[in-house]
Specification:
The protein has 98 residues and is mainly β. It has one domain. 0% of the residues lie in helices and 31% in strands. The strands form two sheets. Strands 1-7-3-4 form a four-stranded antiparallel sheet, with no helix packed on it. A hairpin with a 7-residue loop joins strand 5 and strand 6. The radius of gyration is 13 Å and the shape is globular.
């Protein structure tokens, strides 16, 4: 199973679309480290959605527990992953405005 992996959710994103052929449900964590509900993940669906509450967009999210033969794909966020939130490379154009 995978360790915790970070990814960036751009501003304006209302739902995260994930394609995973993993053999067990994964855990998706919001920017605060709380587990987010992933519609379809627990039911074993390959394509599932995660609601992004207002204010949690433009932030780094994470997942852990992925186990599968094919890679996990986040369909509507940049395909860039990091082992820590501090190590996440976010393009200047996508960074939240101060």
């Amino acid at each position: 199973m995978s360790s915790r992996v970070w990814f960036y959710v751009p501003e304006g994103t209302k739902k995260i679309a994930i394609y995973s052929t993993g053999v067990i449900p994964i855990k998706i964590m919001d920017p605060g480290g709380n587990e987010a509900r992933a519609e379809g993940n627990e039911e074993g669906k390959n394509l599932f959605l995660v609601d992004v509450p207002s204010g949690d967009d433009g932030e780094c999210w994470s997942f852990q527990g992925f186990k599968g033969w094919e890679g996990l794909r986040i369909l509507n966020c940049p395909s860039v992953f990091a082992w820590s939130e501090e190590g996440m490379m976010v393009p200047k154009e996508l960074r939240p405005k101060p």
